[in-house]
Write a structure and sequence with these properties.
The structure holds three protein chains of three kinds. By secondary structure, chain A is of the alpha/beta class. Chain A is 39% helix and 20% strand. Chain A has a six-stranded mixed beta sheet, sandwiched between helices. A four-stranded antiparallel beta sheet of chain A has the order 2-1-4-5, covered by helices on one side. In chain A, a hairpin with a 6-residue loop joins strand 1 and strand 2. In chain A, helix 2 crosses helix 3 and helix 2 runs parallel beside helix 4. The radius of gyration of chain A is 22 Å and the shape is globular. The relative contact order of chain A is 0.15. Chain B is an all-alpha fold. A two-stranded antiparallel sheet of chain B has the order 1-2. In chain B, a hairpin with a 2-residue loop joins strand 1 and strand 2. In chain B, helix 6 (155-186) runs parallel beside helix 9 and helix 8 packs across helix 11. Chain C has eight helices and ten strands. Classes of the chains: A alpha/beta, B mainly alpha, C alpha/beta. The interface between A and C is large, with 50 and 57 residues.
């Protein structure tokens, strides 16, 4: 029995003619302490899948099992880190984390909860900024707060919904390294939703591609057997890294191509017969 | 420099950013840039104001009305001064009146005391007569001390009355609108139930409400005038204000509550917050900016409605002042009404700025995160 | 090879305080006919400014641009520009958006002919069946394809691409790169593209120009890309030199970033709160 399991998940939105099946027959089994990355296209139902895991959306069919028990609705044993951080703007960094801690560990003493909050702020290097409001922070720092909040709830499984998607390349790299470090310290079970193959390889034990929607489902997984900690620069030279990267990229690229095939190649052929528009247009008109 | 930054912050909080360059100029910060900002943000409004005054002065001399020529800005200014002066005049008269009464009472008491000293030396009918006389003197002293100064309310008192009335109406409206709005925002069913009523009553003019309110207050508020805490006209005006200023606050609150960020709702769900925790920790703080926007609009509407309500309900505020001026037309009528118009405008502006400042202090300043 | 598009000592300076600050300084580059060149650098390094000067949208302070032996100093239909955001008019269909420019550039042609040009351009980017869709009915990737079609339909001499896939997710980006590559391999367009994605540059370009960080941005290094055309992603990735070149570029980028971080560190300490309510 797997630690966390999705069995035959199906989900459609809309009704009647406009009904669109987003996910079909999604099966996934995750072991305790495993880091799994689901890589998929935007609009392919990635976020829907994560919301179903979190219990925020009810699937039409299939079930979500945690330690063999079916989960209904959201709960703090499945912590979520949202792409847009979802911090409460009227609370300081510390208060945002404390909100979760106070709710989940209400039976603890105040001092112990306090210490727990501080510990997690230290974990994401935010002790200095603990009194600040989210709007005073950069995107990367906001996502650190969200991460601290997710971890401080001490969930059995942590769900990351494209957590670095809204960040610039450099901040993204820094946070990825940070997450890798924290995961090595804590060994939480993690599901990461992403569209970045490199991110998946850097962080995960296993990469599961999600086929492009509609009717998206999970394709065969790629094991990532690279030693940790994984340095970005060192990885680039490893043949094993290059192999996995090429395999995953080509697998996803092939999905694009089959999707592209559904688009009108025939049309392109037909119109190709039309003569090329005149090549020279030297007059610089103000377009 | 700390002083400068504090001042600038205060200006921003109160929505008076236009004065920021003045502060920065005083601190000699990039004087060139500040001067150009001053020219645009202070110079231009000033210029427009002067233009307006000029046009007004030019027009004033040419317009003849039943109440004389249209007063010039200077005449209106003088009239304003004399209204304020009249207030202090009345205050001085009042003071003098009470001093007078005190003195009178003291005289009576002194006389009574003198008689009482001689009381032991008398007996029988003589003594009874004397006691009666002492009693009469003490009564008079008491009456003199208790006598109230009566005069028609001055202009400043009328302003205060208007402010009291509008705030009473506004508080009444808020007490109804905000909780209702929260319920509407939380429950689509509740919203769709109330929506038709809201849509129908929202556009109703205060002039239509007023007669109904007057009749209802007349029927239900039957306390004797001497024992009543409030005048009927006051209650009528306040309720009319409340009825008209209810809607913006209600609609905005409902909007604010129903538009809570989905992500925030999800956070609440993952944490399994109870309904009350959800409202207190997530919904109210998120909706606060819009609630305040609604309240701000409500107060503005209330202030506008108030003048009409006071005119008709004869509540002794600014509305009644204008009405009275209009009724017993004199050469001062036009100038006085214009003073009232400017007063109403300035107070309305001040109320709005006040609400903005309050909003910025209380809410999280529309931060996105 | 003779230069088809020549960027000669391009400098863009803005007045600041007493003197002036050059965003880009003395940037020179020759591009041959049919060549695809990528400008790569960190955000804010001035690479978009260079492109904007070539497009004629920003007048250079010094220097100039010569295209096909003519100096260019204003926007023109000989240079098709694709921006990061497709900027489609929301009330027009995909085809109408494309036709907007076509009518102007191919003014002499009949309406039917103009329409065919527009349809062909959309078909080339794989949108042949979405001609009458409005922007809001299209995904971001599809909108950007309309943007590319709009530029192509004008039959420009050069294609200028300013981070055209910057707003798309990694996988959609891959899809559009394939489409763009196919278009370019088909008729060997000359193109100048700005990007910060090393893999994208390696996949598409014949030459990669690394820029130094602004102010005074210039050419840091020029890296020729040896992969043969027509290219297929799998082959490019398997090329023995792919990861070597990738590392070379990443290292260059990283060095530039460190330089910038060092320069910026004290400035960052001074300005903690610039958010105004």
């Amino acid at each position: 029995m797997a630690f966390f399991e999705l069995k035959g998940i199906r989900k459609a939105f809309g009704s009647g003619n406009r009904r669109a099946e987003v996910l079909r027959d999604v099966d996934l089994a995750i072991e305790e302490g495993e880091f799994v990355a689901v890589v998929g296209f935007s609009g392919s139902g990635k976020s829907t899948l994560l919301s179903i895991m979190a219990g925020l959306i009810e699937p039409d069919g299939g079930e979500v099992l945690l330690r063999g028990r079916k989960v209904r609705g959201p709960g703090p044993e499945r912590g979520v880190v949202f792409q847009q951080y979802a911090l409460l703007p009227w609370l300081s960094v510390r208060e945002n984390v404390a909100l979760a801690v106070d709710k989940v560990f209400r039976h603890w003493t105040r001092a112990r909860r306090r210490e727990h909050v501080e510990e997690h702020l230290r974990l994401v290097n935010l002790s200095e900024a603990a009194h600040k409001k989210p709007r005073e922070l950069s995107g990367g720092m906001r996502q650190r707060v969200a991460l601290a909040r997710g971890l401080a709830m001490d969930p059995e499984i942590l769900l990351l919904d494209e957590p670095f998607g809204a960040l610039d390349a450099l901040t993204r790299a820094t946070l990825q390294t940070e997450v890798a470090r924290i995961w090595q310290e804590r060994r939480k079970t993690v599901v990461l939703i992403t569209n970045d193959v490199d991110e998946g390889i850097l962080l995960a034990d296993r990469i599961v591609p999600l086929t492009p929607g509609p009717q998206a489902t999970l394709a065969d997984a790629f094991e990532v057997n690279l030693a940790r900690p994984r340095g970005r620069r060192e990885l680039n030279r490893l043949p094993e890294f290059q192999r996995i990267r090429n395999e995953v990229t080509c697998c996803l690229n092939a999905m694009v191509r089959t999707r592209g095939a559904r688009l009108p190649e025939a049309d392109a052929e037909r119109t190709a017969a039309v003569p090329e528009p005149g090549p020279v247009c030297s007059v610089a008109s103000g377009i | 420099m700390a002083l400068k930054e504090t001042t600038v912050r205060v200006l921003h909080r109160t929505g008076l950013q236009v004065f920021e360059p003045l502060v920065r100029l005083a601190a000699l910060e990039e004087p060139k840039q500040q001067l150009s900002r001053i020219a645009i943000h202070l110079g231009m409004p000033l210029l427009a104001m002067l233009g307006f005054l000029l046009l007004w002065s030019l027009a004033a001399a040419r317009i003849e009305t039943a109440y004389g020529t249209l007063p010039t800005p200077g005449q209106v200014w003088d009239e304003g001064g004399s209204l304020v002066e009249a207030h202090f005049e009345t205050r001085r008269a009042e003071e003098a009146f009470y001093v007078d009464q005190q003195e009178q009472a003291a005289l009576y008491l002194a006389e009574a005391a003198a008689l009482r000293a001689g009381l032991d030396r008398t007996a029988g009918r003589e003594r009874v007569k004397l006691e009666k006389q002492i009693g009469r003197l003490e009564d008079r002293a008491e009456r003199a001390g208790a006598k109230r100064f009566t005069a028609t309310p001055t202009y400043l008192e009328q302003i205060v009355t208007s402010l009291k009335t509008v705030f009473t109406g506004f508080v009444l409206a808020s007490l109804v609108a905000v909780p209702l709005g929260i319920l509407c925002g939380m429950s689509p069913a509740f919203m769709s139930a109330l929506n038709p009523l809201i849509q129908i009553f929202k556009p109703v003019s205060p002039l239509a409400w007023l007669p109904i309110v007057t009749i209802l207050v007349g029927a239900l508020y039957t306390t004797e005038p001497q024992e009543a805490w409030f005048e009927k006209s006051f209650i009528t005006s306040a309720i009319t204000v409340a009825l008209c200023s209810l809607w913006p606050a209600l609609v905005n609150t409902a909007q604010g509550v129903s538009n809570v960020d989905r992500d925030h709702v999800n956070v609440s769900r993952v944490l399994q917050l109870t309904w009350f925790e959800h409202v207190r920790l997530i919904v109210l703080p998120s909706a606060l900016p819009l609630i305040f926007t609604g309240l701000r609009i409500s107060l503005g509407v209330g202030w506008m409605v108030l003048i009409a309500a006071e005119m008709l309900a004869q509540n002794p505020g600014l509305g009644k002042f204008i009405w009275d001026m209009f009724q017993n037309g004199s050469s001062q009528t036009l100038a006085r009404i214009m003073v009232a118009v400017f007063t109403i405008g300035l107070i309305g502006f001040a109320l709005d700025r006040g609400m903005v400042a309050l909003q910025r202090c209380v809410t999280f300043e529309g931060a996105a995160a | 090879m003779p230069a088809y598009l020549e960027l000669f000592k391009l400098t863009k300076a803005y007045p600041s305080g007493a003197g002036s600050v050059a965003v880009v300084k003395s940037f020179s580059l020759d591009i041959a006919r049919g060549e695809f060149v990528c400008l790569i650098g960190h955000s804010g390094c001035g690479k978009s400014t260079v492109l904007s000067m070539v497009a004629g949208l920003t007048p250079p302070t010094h220097g100039g641009v010569v295209l096909d032996d003519r100096e260019v100093d204003r926007p023109g239909a000989d240079r098709g520009v694709v921006f990061q955001a497709p900027c489609l008019l929301p009330w027009l269909t995909a085809l109408e958006n494309v036709l907007l420019g076509v009518r102007k550039v191919h003014a002499g042609k009949s309406a039917a002919e103009q329409r065919r040009i527009g349809e062909r351009a959309l078909a080339l980017v794989g949108l042949g069946d979405a001609l009458s869709k409005r922007p809001r009915e299209l995904s971001q990737g599809m909108q950007q394809r309309v943007g590319i079609a709009r530029a192509l339909a004008l039959a420009p001499k050069v294609l200028l691409l300013d981070e055209p896939f910057g707003m798309l997710d990694a996988l959609t980006r891959m899809e559009l790169q394939d489409i763009l590559l196919e278009l370019l391999d088909r008729d060997r367009k000359t193109a100048l593209m700005v990007t910060h994605d090393v893999d994208e540059a390696l996949f598409l370009a014949d030459r990669i120009v690394m820029m130094t960080n602004g102010p005074d941005a210039g050419v840091r290094a020029v890296v020729p890309v040896p992969f043969e055309r027509p290219r297929i992603r799998a082959d490019v990735l398997e090329h023995p030199r792919y990861y070597e070149l990738r590392e070379q570029l990443l290292t260059l980028l990283e060095e530039e970033e460190h330089k910038r971080a060092l320069e910026r560190a004290p400035a960052r300490m001074e300005a903690p709160q610039t958010v105004s309510p």
